[in-house]
Amino acid sequence: xxxxxxxxxxxxxxxxxxxxxxxxxxxxxxxxxxxxxxxxxxxxxxxxxxxxxxxxxxxxxxxxxxxxxxxxxxxxxxxxxxxxxxxxxxxxxxxxxxxxxxxxxxxxxxxxxxxxxxxxxxxxxxxxxxxxxxxxxxxxxxxxxxxxxxxxxxxxxxxxxxxxxxxxxxxxxxxxx
Length: 177
Ligand SMILES: [Cu+2]
Fold this sequence. Notes:
By secondary structure, the chain is of the alpha+beta class. It is built from two helices and eleven strands. Strands 1, 2, 3, 4, 5, 6, 7, 8, 9, 10 and 11 form an eleven-stranded mixed beta sheet that branches. The chain is globular. Bound molecules: copper (II) ion (CU). Residues 58, 87, 99, 122, 124, 177 line the site of copper (II) ion.
């Protein structure tokens, strides 16, 4: 096989290809001011939901923001619960840890993360449609303040702990969290 003729031709082909690639990249590069939908830059790591027979349960994980701007989760929906809320856990005047709906949603800092964990911020399933059994998968959809969305699924795990009271009291008071 005579390589002395094919190699220069190959080099020429590569050079042309690189030129084409460079031109393409320049044309499609986004303008600096272009806003990327929050749903395109957010991911979650180690998501999981707590098993429960009925009533309320919660989901956790680490939300990551890979974008250059802070993003805000304003609501969440799921096929597992008719109603969901974004909860924070705070100490009340009596010194008890209680959970309540967070004002303004979950803010994930630019290039940073927000941990959702028992005893802290979490996704609250207020009214389960069916029992959550360990090994099940639950799908959640986060909605951001720019109306973009991010869907993820979380495995159900057994967990005991973080049984804060629900601040509104009433029928939910002392309910397993
Ligand atoms: Cu809660």
